[in-house]
Amino acid sequence: MNLTRRQANLAGFAACVAALCVALFAQYGLGLTPCHLCIFQRVCVAGLGVAFLLATLHNPGDLGARVYAGLIGLCAATTAVVAGRHVWIQLQPPG
User: Fold this and answer.
1) pTM of the predicted structure, to 2 decimals
2) Best exposed site among 10, 46, 76, 95 by fewest CB in 10 Å?
3) Contacts of 52 (CB under 8 A, 6+ apart)
């Protein structure tokens, strides 16, 4: 399956929206209270979604696509670092 650049960016945006919908369902539907890192992860995923959406709407040429790829990569790396820290904290022994 060959996706165009615009379709790939739209799929990334849809994945971010889906992740945020699951997080909000867990909070409001299941009654789980998010911690500070959960909220920071949501902010990072929302930022990543905005970057994907901007790239989708703008549909730039080659140079613009590289700029958007750098922005998306930075947002994704920030999200991964926060998620990694979150998992690391949860894996620590009590106390």
Assistant:
1) 0.89
2) 95
3) 9, 10, 12, 13, 16, 72
